[in-house]
Structures are given as structure tokens and as C-alpha cells.
Amino acid sequence: MSGFYFVVVRSDGGLRQAAPLQSVAVTGLIRDAVAEYTMIQTYVNPLPKEYIDGAYTFPLYEGVAVTGFQAEVGGRKIVGKVAEKVAAREEYEEAVREGKTASLLEQEKPDMFQASIGNIPPGKTISICITLVSEMKHDAGENQVRFVLPTTVAPRHDSSFNMPDFSGRGFVRYPNSSSPFSVPASKLSINMACVMSKPITSVQSPSHTIEVHVGTTETTGSLESYTFDPNRARVSLTEDALLDCDLVIIIQSRGLDQPRVLVEHHPKDQTHAISLTFQPRFTLKPLQASELVFLVDVRSKSMLTRAGEALELFLRYIPFENHYFNVMGRSTTFGSSQQALFPTSVEFCAESLREGVKYAQKIKGYESGIEIGSAFLEISLRRRRDVPTQIFLLTDGQISEIEQLRRAISNAVDDGERSNQPFRVFSLGIGDSVSHHLIQSVARAGRGYAQLVMAGERMEKKVFNMLKAGLMPPVTDTTIQWTDSIVNDFVMVGGEDGADDDVALVNNNASKPLINLFSDSESPPTVSQDTPPPDISATIYQAPFKLPILCPGARFTAYAILSPTIPLPKELILRGVSPDGPVELRVKIESVVEGETMLHSLAARALARDFEEASSSVHALGKQKLALYEKQKLKHLGVSVAQREGQNRSDILPLSFNHVAEITKQKLIDIGETYNLSTKYTSWVVIDEEGPRNARDVVPVGSYIVDVSRPLPPTPCFGHTTPIYGSSFFGETQAFGASTPAFGASTPAFGASTPAFGASTPAFGNSSTPAFGAPPAPAFGAIAAPAFSGFGPAFSANASSAPASGAPQGALFGAPSAYGVPFSSSTGVFGSQASPFHKAPMSPTNPQMRLQSLLQLQSFDGLFPLVPAIAALFNTTVDNLKTKLGELRKQCTGLVVLAEGQWEAIWATCLTTEFIKSKLKELRNEWEPAVEKAERRVAFLVYNEEHIARFKAFARAT
């Protein structure tokens, strides 16, 4: 996860060396779907007589905010503060120049932080304490929370890569350089408390062997002396583990998907922070026709097989009617350059599916990395204009031009909205080192959502849900009513064409000069380029400004900060428009948490991200022409633009590019400094004013930060000696308003007045429902937790004790299917390669093997053939099943006219789906998409619901 590198003060060479990592300890609290935890990493200055300057780096997952930063050098604690980035850097350099021990924490990229520590005394212990808070990421499961601690830095590929010469620049370590100090493999200890609003039903880890105490969060004393609480648990590792893979803990608790509103009253500025979160559950009629384009960008050889399996699943799950698809990638099939599988998207049919599966199986053996920018442009130019287009990006995260890609996608989506040619982008990250910032920012810009499939996880449900979301028409014009009555300080002006008068202009000069209709001036007056930007304010700050996608399977979370003048509403109302009619959700506000700042922290992080990704209300004001719903949104949020003396409306709106940039920078600085939030323009700085001095000249901090755009192999971060300059350092926001806990202590959680462990205060202000119920669920094949036994005793959730989730290579899909298109001849997509924690071989009678053998018979349109393999399920023969089919058809009057082969396929499909639903219930997540596709096809052919019900009943009785 991180590495500490140093250079010796006054060293002529300046080559970076690695300091030994002594320990890594993570303690904290998972409260419903919010995690707050403290990470303490301890290093030692290995030099007995020399001061050193150090650099410390660590990755963060998307959405994590740093709420506290402390350093402890030789027993002395130094607490950090947030300042404007340039000012913080100058303060740090001045302190180091004066010989003080100091540290600077900077965010340079959305998924990485870097801390620089100057003047570390000889032989002293160095402890870095970072407190973080995050909402949990969305995943495919229901009512589950997934906590992930990253340990690797994903590389970024760049076609122009050449190894840079960093000699003499400090904090650099060449790959072949050696260190006089051995750096042992780093170890990790974990102690996490889980406090849920409803009973915990499962705690498990697909990555490590964990010990779980159910019914208590206490860490000391006799467990038998505590009162059992089913809403609580404590999780630790059975022994210290090596940091060779991400730590994943999955907690399942009832009701996490339910809609809920949380409200927090800030103790200082009197604002209210509000969040609305839920897992949508509604249905719309699917798109009758669409274009599906799969963009495959995978460079890691270890992930090529997984990418091929994912692509094959996507293709097999496509509905059979009126859909078109194409694949963009690179393999030996296409040659050395990127190319589309077809010149233009083709209709989904048996032949095109066969070609797609053939390509999916070939990329398992060859690199499929592409130039993502040009590939996306090519897709945009080639896409169909008569049907909605959905792009699915399959990537291992090794992309460097993230910001350029995000902008291109955002522009394409906006163009599609203006031309009524819908265009959306979904992203599927594959592997353990995927940049969450990459897949999440691409999905946000594309108005889709992102998913991650880690090594060893089953992906069927995730792939199916994503494809299903792409085939659902988008809910548009979504708004949240954050007040009981619409803000009425601003009045619509102009005609029905929606003139740009929906945003209020606050006139600072009540008497406007009279405009002469025939002026003697030689030219109209121009606005000076040096005109300062107007002041922009709002009574409601909503984040994200563009609300997230609304579709089943993708958690919806939105925040707002209400000014003190806005009364707190009694309920929130979410509205939108769909092709099937308007949609709405009403959620009552039941309680308000006083004196806490965690919700403000999460809202601020989301607000800062809007500014950093150019998707804020300020950026909307920079558009040449706003859509009507955007104007209404700005009005409802109370956005106002201050009109300066001598300015006309046309002089101000739309905002110029320079004005947008200036306002954005100032807003980020204001957010960071007001709420202790690390942003693109603010940093953390700590100064030891009382420690020993070592006055000297100091190399500017900027020269310590090496080029972060260059690629490297995936780098284990704790105590590893390989270089880290391939990582990016522009990170997650830090929660504002949160007080820093005592060094090494766990912070009280949101709404709790007692410490994390052993707390007796109910979560989130005595809320009866879980907060932030976003449940990133484990992928298919994740380990099932052992059943809880007793009241509080520990049990081990050992990954190796779980049922195996993968089949031996070539066990199932080596031969062509008797009906339809065969699966891969290597590891099957429904029997993914087992993770290192699932090594037990599957027997032929294993339920997953039985399911796989059935699903490989399914045709492109969803039907199954009437073959001996199907008859064997019922211990009979094909002839006997044909006889029963004849009897069944005689009982059904008015059947549609179909060919004999179609009736046999319908009968076989009913037999197979009813068998699967009855005998393989535990694998529902894996067979559900295939069964749904089959039943849709049967319904399409037979048409009569009564006849379909009779066929199913006859199948169950067979």
C-alpha cells in the first residue's frame, strides 16, 4: 500500500533508499456502509548518525477521504493542518530550512497521496498515522458491505514511455540499484469493529483468514462477560499477514439496501448536511433495440483470461432480438494495431455470436491493450445513430490518459443528449491493481456505473447486472427536492424557449445606465480581459451536481449542504422521467445528528470531486447553451451570480473559460481550508515546533516528486524496494470539519459518543435503519462465512475451507456444444479459474459443474435443445420426453403454429429451467441471467401465459 524512501541530508548522490517497514496496523469501525479507520505505519531511520528526508506514498480507493494526518518521530507527535497548496509547500520548506522536523501531505492524482518528511533524526522511529473515512463501493450483491484495503499501485501505460533520467533529483531509485538495508516482507495486523443497524448475518473474507467475534466489539477481557448484540462483530486476522494482496472483508446485514436519509448539523457553521442513499428496485421496459460496443483494454497477461471470460459472458447474455454489437481490441486476430471485430456493429445472431466468442477466446492468449483515446474516438464515429449506444469498457486499469478520456466521454454524452441519440459508458475493472479512479470517473462521465472483478472472484452476476442496466432506458431529468418548498428567491424570466434567465443575477448596482439605441461610439464597449470573475453562491450545494444513474443494481447516493437560512425539510423527494412514465421516491427525515462532521466530510469530498472533474454548477454556467432541466436545477439549488457595476448579463453568462478556472480554484481552496479537505489546491502540513533543530539548505519539495505519468509493473506498496514513480498522487478528498483523534486511537464513529470498540451508542443517531447502505457485494465464488455459533465466541473464516469455485482447465468446454456456440476450450466462464484460496478440485457431481454443463447447451436466443443430456436430468430418454410433449400439446387448445423443432426446444427449455430453479437454488446468482433469457424467449414464441404455465407445471411433474 505504501513505501517510505529517503535520501541522506547533504548527500551528494541523492539516490533514494528504502527504509525498513516495522509494522502496519489498521483499526477502525464499519458502521453500516461507512468505514472510518486509522492506519499506522511504523518505519525506522536506519542511519545512526545522519538526518534523512523521507517520502511516503500510499494509494486510496475512489471515494476515500483523509480526515487526519499525524507523524510521530522519536515519540514526538506532530498534528497536521490543511492549507492552500503553495502556501503549505512554502511553510514546509521554511521549516525544514530552519532544521525542524516537518511533513507535507499532497494529493496529486485522485488515487494517490504523497507525504514528504524532512529532518528525521538519526536512528529514530517514524510512525505515520492517517485517518480515513469512506462510503462503501457498489457491488453486485444485496445487503452487503465490502471493506477493501489496497496494497498495490496500479501501473499506467503510455505509448511514449522511455525510462526518464532522474539522477540528481532526489527520491529516485533505479531498478538495478541496491540498498545497504534489507527490506523484509511487510506484515499487516487488522482490528475492525462492525456496528450495524440490524443483525449481522455474515462476515467473511475472500482474501485472508480472519477471526470473527460475533455479538461484541470489545477487544479485551473475557468475551463471556459481554451481553450479546447481534448487530455487532469484531474482525481480526488470525495471524499477521503478508501484504501481498488487497485485504477484503465482507459484512452482510439486513436492510442495507433500503432508502434512507441521514442529516447532520454542523457544530460550527450551523449548516445541515444531508445524504440520500438506496439501492433502486424498479422495472422499466427494456430497450427494444440498442447498440452494444465492448472496448477491451487489458495489458496484464494474468488478466487476459479473465477479460476473455467477461467478454464471453457479456456476449452470451445479449437478448436475441433487435440488438447490435461490436468489439474493439487488439490481438493476433486483428494484427498489431487496434481494430474492430466488424466494420460496423452487426445484428446479434448465432453467426455473429460465434465470431464474438471466437475473439473472446483468442484474447485470453494475447495482449489486448489499445490506445484508449483513439479507440474511443473511432467508436464514436462508427456508432449507429438510429438506436441508443452503450459502451462497456473492460480494463485492467493500466491507462495513463484518464482525464483526457473522461472529457471525451463527457462530451460524447452531452452531444448524444442534444441530438437525442443516447450514449452511455459502463466500466468493468478486472484485477487486483485496477485504478478505482479510472473506472469510476469513466462511468460517471458516461452516465453509467462501474464494477470491479478481483482475481478469483466469480463475475456472472456483475456482468449480467451491468448488461441489464445498459439495456434499460435511462431515467432522465432527475432532481432531488432538498427543501419542503422550492426555493422561491429566483423568478423565471423570458419566453417559453427557455432563455438563459433561469439563474438569478444579483445586481450590485440598482440603477442601470440608460442604453442609447443609436450610439455615436465607434465600437461597442468590450469587457476587459482582466475583469475579475463574478461571485457565485448557492443556498444548496448538491453533490454530485449531475445525479448518479438510476437503475437496479447500482447504488444511488447523493449529498447536499444546506445553508443556515434554508429550513430542514420533513422529507426528500427524488423525481425523474422514464419512457414508461415519471418515477418518484419519497423518504422521510426521522432524526438529526448533532455535533458530528462525518456526513459533512463525505458531502465535501463529493462536492470537491465535482469541481475537479469539471461537472459542477460553475461549469454548467460556462456552457454556451443550457438545457431546460439544467436551468431549472440551478434555480432550485438557489444558484446566483453577482452582477458587478457596469456589467450586463451578456457580459457575465456564459462564464468564460478563464473565469470558470479561477472560480473552480477558489472554490476548492475554500472547501479545503474550511473543512480540512485535501484537494487539488490544498495540502496537509505538519511542523514540529518543539523538537531538535538541524538547520540547513533545503531542496524544494517539488524536486522530490518524480514523474508520475510513467508506467511500472504493479508495485506492492508496503516496504517494497522497487521504484514508485509510476504511481499517481492526486487523491481523495479529506473530510472537512472532522477533528483529529488522539494518535493511534480510533475515532468515534458517526453519531456515536463512545469509542469505536465497545461503543454502546446506536449507529448514526439511533437510526433504526442502516446508514449509507451501499453494499459492494462479493463476486461469485466468494467465500461463505461459517455459520455463527454461540454468543460471542470466535470462529475462523478461512478462505481455504470454502467450496471450490473453479473447474479444472479444459474440464467442461473443450468440445463443441451440441447446440449453439461452445464455451472456451480453456477455463470456462461459468467455472472461472479458482483463486489461490479455492484449491479444492470439483467433482463431476458438483452443482456448479452440473450447471456449467447445462449452460453450455444454451443457444444464442436462450433456448435449450432436446438432447440426451437434458433427458438424463430426469432419468429418461429423448423419445419419452417427445411422447410427453405430444400429450402436453393435446391438452393445450389454441396453441400457436410452430415448427416441430421449435416445440421440442420450448419443451426442453421448460424442463431445463425448472430443473435448475428446483435443484440448483444455491447457485441462483449464476443461473438467473440464463434462465431469464430462456423464459423471455419461450414467452415470445408461445405468447399465451396459460399455455406457458401449463408447460412449466408439466416440466416440474416430470
UniProtKB/TrEMBL annotation:
It comes from the Eukaryota. InterPro entries: VIT, VWF_A, vWFA_dom_sf. Residues 5-134 form the VIT domain. Gene3D superfamilies: von Willebrand factor, type A domain. This is VIT domain-containing protein. The lineage of its organism: Eukaryota, Viridiplantae, Streptophyta, Embryophyta, Bryophyta.
